[in-house]
Design a protein that fits this description.
The structure is a single chain. By secondary structure, the chain is of the alpha+beta class. The protein is globular. The termini are far apart.
Length: 375
């Protein structure tokens, strides 16, 4: 792993007994001595702390100085209402390509005079170049290089963080704020990737380890690795870029139509105007040929990514493929996501081929585990 990057918290992961693995070009902890199952359940019951410093943090400021101009510039690249995003609020967005596929998914925050974007680690250099190429004439685009990013997730996350930043308890889901702790400027959002209440906190590198140590010193907080992060997000029905969504899948196929606001749809105030609008608006109107769905395999055997799905227990060609799958510690059962023909409805039985044997699975609504955001 000599050519891999390391986050500023790398040494702390080693001290905590983290098992390091390659992920998105970084050495990242997949688990700690507690183990994936217990880490998952601890996060659901208390508060898990994740190092997500490998993610990309990008600042976008209109050269006019008006955040509205930055919003309109970004709207040229995403099928999302950025102009309508109020100051102090954050929204999920998608970079689309000319064929209507998804180049990356991201979070966008309105911070008053500029936008703050958080993008996926594996895509961050490409996303930065994409922004520079397409909106660089109108906006200053800057990659944040001197800040760590951590996520504190779970029902006791607010209690823990409030000991250091008391007024975070007043924040609602998708609020963003800038606060101070021990002379460090913290960029805080009430959001995350587990389906639980929680926060993502950008902290200057020089304060990152001391900030994390303070949180880990609290009895309701424990370090959590990538293994439990994956099972938590899958229970929450959330997409992993490069697996459940990619450059070949449209937002409509990906069951992400909730992320495309009325203003950008047919008849909206700013209809279209984003890459792949022709395909995406057509699929919104007519429906896509396939959709991302949830599956609950019968029995205890998980159905993993790449398994082919069939309509019948015997014969016929595959009708789709599983994109994410595993065992859900909270639901105590296997779960999966797959792309299947759009005319199949919840409750229908399909068959995943596991080690040469077709096993039944039921198309099920997501999330598998109810979300518990602070509304």
């Amino acid at each position: 792993m000599t050519d891999l990057k390391r986050t500023v918290l790398f040494d702390l992961h080693g001290e905590l007994g983290g098992k390091m693995v390659p992920f998105a070009g970084y050495e990242m902890p997949v688990q700690y001595p507690m183990g994936v199952m217990k880490e998952h359940l601890f996060t659901r019951a208390h508060a898990g702390l994740f190092d997500v410093s490998h993610m990309g943090q990008i600042l976008m400021t209109a050269k006019s100085g008006r955040v509205e101009d930055a919003a309109l510039a970004l709207e040229r690249l995403v099928p999302v209402d950025i102009l309508g995003l109020k100051e102090g609020r954050q929204r999920y967005a998608l970079f689309t390509n000319d064929t209507g596929g998804i180049q990356d998914d991201l979070m966008v925050a309105n911070r008053g005079d500029h936008l703050f974007l958080v993008v996926n680690a594996a895509c961050k250099e490409a996303d930065f170049a994409h922004l520079k190429a397409h909106v660089g004439a109108d906006c200053d685009i800057g990659m944040v290089e001197d800040r760590a990013l951590v996520a504190l997730q779970g029902p006791e996350a607010a209690t823990a963080l409030a000991r250091l930043v008391p007024d975070v308890v007043e924040m609602a889901f998708m609020d963003v704020a800038i606060r101070h702790w021990d002379s460090a400027e913290l960029w805080i959002s009430r959001s995350g990737y587990t389906g639980e209440d929680g926060f993502e906190i950008s902290v200057p590198n020089k304060f990152a380890e001391s900030f994390v140590r303070r949180l880990l010193g609290m009895e309701e907080v424990a370090p959590i690795g990538l293994g439990a992060r994956d099972s938590l997000r899958l229970e929450a029905g959330m997409c992993l870029y490069g697996h459940d969504i990619d450059e070949g899948t449209s937002p409509v196929e990906g069951n992400l139509t909730w992320a495309i606001q009325k203003a950008r749809r047919a008849g909206g105030a700013r209809e279209g105007g984003f890459p792949g609008a022709g395909r995406i608006l057509k699929e919104l109107a007519e429906g896509p040929p396939r959709r991302r769905v949830g599956l609950r395999p019968k029995g205890r055997a998980p159905m993993r990514e790449g398994i082919e799905v069939y309509a019948a227990a015997e014969g016929g060609d595959p009708i789709g493929k599983i994109t994410s799958g595993g065992f859900g510690p909270s639901i105590e059962a296997p779960m999966a996501m797959a792309y299947l023909p759009a005319d199949l409805s919840d409750g229908a039985t399909v068959y995943g081929e596991v080690r040469g044997k077709r096993l039944p699975a039921v198309i099920s609504p997501m999330p598998f585990q109810p979300n518990r955001y602070k509304r």
